[in-house]
């Protein structure tokens, strides 16, 4: 496995990545081609197995025991080959999946490395005094919210309402409106 050093242009830091994942796409394509070829070969062997069984049945019905046993023998031989190819295909698929998963893990690891570098740079620029001020303001807001909730919670659904005071305020508003209505509207003569 080769290692190359890549430069992260945003941070001007060097990071190590596994360079073999660049050729993983080619490896995956080759493995897909191998899997496809194995599928074709397995299909051909399966067809041959079926042909041997059909011939064996025909020879059995004709009471040709020697040719029947020969076809069964060839069928068994082909069946062993068939199982070997199916197992080989299964192993190749497993290898392809492992390479694909490894590529994904390498990509995730590289992204985490870049994110870690960015986080370290961001933490260098943080001013602890501003954090303390922000925390104090948040604490004050939380205390004020608790106080308001306490005041609202103490009413128990009963609100003190002074009806006489409300009526007096209403009368005052009505008087102000009457005074405004009595004032003549002044129309300004403007020459255009």
Explain how this protein is built.
- This protein is mainly α and 192 residues long.
- It has a domain at 3-125: Orthogonal Bundle (Helix Hairpins).
- It is built from four helices and two strands.
- A two-stranded antiparallel ribbon has the order 1-2.
- A hairpin with a 4-residue loop joins strand 1 (3-8) and strand 2 (13-18).
- Helix 1 runs antiparallel to helix 2.
- The longest helix has 60 residues, at 65-124.
- The radius of gyration is 44 Å and the shape is elongated.
Q: What does the largest sheet look like?
A: 2 strands, antiparallel
The secondary-structure element order is: EEHHHH
Q: Tell how many strands the DSSP assignment holds.
A: 2
Return residue spans where pLDDT drops below 50 for at least 5 consecutive residues: 1-14, 16-22
For the record, the CATH class of the domain at 3-125 is Mainly Alpha
Proportion of helical residues: over 70%
The secondary structure category is: mainly alpha
Can you tell me the CATH architecture of the domain at 3-125?
Answer: Orthogonal Bundle
Radius of gyration: 44 Å
Portion of residues in beta strands equals 5-15%
Number of helices: 4
CATH-derived topology of the domain at 3-125: Helix Hairpins
The mean pLDDT is: 79
* Order of the strands making up the biggest sheet: 1-2
Rough outline: elongated
Q: How many angstroms separate the termini? A: 90 Å
Key structural traits:
192 residues; mainly alpha; Helix Hairpins; two-stranded antiparallel sheet; 4 helices; 2 strands; 6% strand; disordered N terminus
């Amino acid at each position: 496995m080769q290692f190359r050093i890549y430069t992260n242009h945003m941070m001007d830091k060097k990071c190590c990545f596994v360079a073999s994942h660049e050729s993983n796409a080619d490896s995956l394509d080759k493995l897909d081609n191998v899997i496809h070829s194995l599928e074709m070969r397995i299909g051909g062997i399966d067809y041959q197995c079926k042909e041997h069984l059909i011939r064996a049945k025909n020879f059995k019905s004709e009471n040709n025991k020697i040719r029947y046993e020969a076809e069964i023998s060839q069928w068994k031989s082909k069946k062993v080959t068939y199982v070997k190819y199916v197992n080989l295909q299964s192993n190749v698929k497993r290898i392809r999946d492992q390479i694909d998963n490894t590529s994904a893990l390498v990509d995730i690891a590289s992204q985490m490395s870049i994110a870690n570098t960015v986080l370290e740079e961001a933490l260098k620029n943080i001013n602890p005094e501003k954090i303390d001020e922000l925390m104090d303001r948040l604490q004050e807001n939380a205390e004020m919210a608790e106080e308001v909730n306490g005041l609202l919670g103490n009413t128990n659904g009963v609100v003190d309402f002074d009806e006489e005071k409300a009526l007096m305020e209403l009368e005052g508003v009505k008087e102000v409106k009457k005074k405004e209505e009595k004032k003549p509207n002044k129309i300004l003569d403007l020459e255009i």
